[in-house]
Hints:
- The longest helix is centred in the N-terminal third of the chain and has 19 residues, at 5-23.
- The chain has helices at residues 5-23, 69-82, 137-143, 147-158, and strands at residues 46-52, 55-62, 98-105, 109-111, 123-128, 131-135, 170-174, 176-180.
- It contains four helices and eight strands.
- By secondary structure, it is an alpha+beta fold.
- It folds into two domains: 5-105, Hypothetical protein ph0010, domain 1 (Glycoprotein, Type 4 Pilin); 109-174, Dna Ligase, domain 1 (2-Layer Sandwich).
- The strands form two sheets. Strands 2-1-3-8 form a four-stranded antiparallel β-sheet, with helices on one face.
Amino acid sequence: MTLxxxxxxxxxxxxxxxxxxxxxxxxxxxxxxxxxxxALMTKCGxxxxxxxxxxxxxxxxxxxxxxPLFKNVMKMSNSAAxxxxxxxxxxxxxxxxxxxxxxxxxxxxxxxGPEEIEIGRxxxxxxxxxxxxxxxxxxxxxxxxxVEEFLxxxxxxxxxxxxxxxxxxxxxxxxxxxxxxxxMDGIVNFS
Length: 191
């Protein structure tokens, strides 16, 4: 999927608005009316990562292709801000220090083995029985991991398998269009 700068800006605004809504301790999703272009009505998965002072404070996503992209971004923003149990919820006083990163996901493709993974291009998803885990494409690149380290970290820390548990799991790759609020001007309007 190709997103224009305006599409990205609108998705980031939706994410900011949802986070602000959560910080104001509202129970339900933000009901602000947006003019949604057809591209953002496409049904695809998304991850939303929230950073405070450049430290990850929430990252939640979905591969679900049952809802339009803009709704997935809204729901994942809400969850990342308040329901990522690895971190304390974002607080209203942290608003000025927040950076949002959105990863729009391609459909997953089953692969036969690690030789089909390209670091920096592919995210990894693995599944073995009821255990599943994923790491976004940018993670391996940021950590300067090899393919084996990417798979091992995903297996052990995301899927709850042994380090080499990926060898028994069904492996999938996907791609992501990744952008963040630091790349766009004029998005934040907390009032």
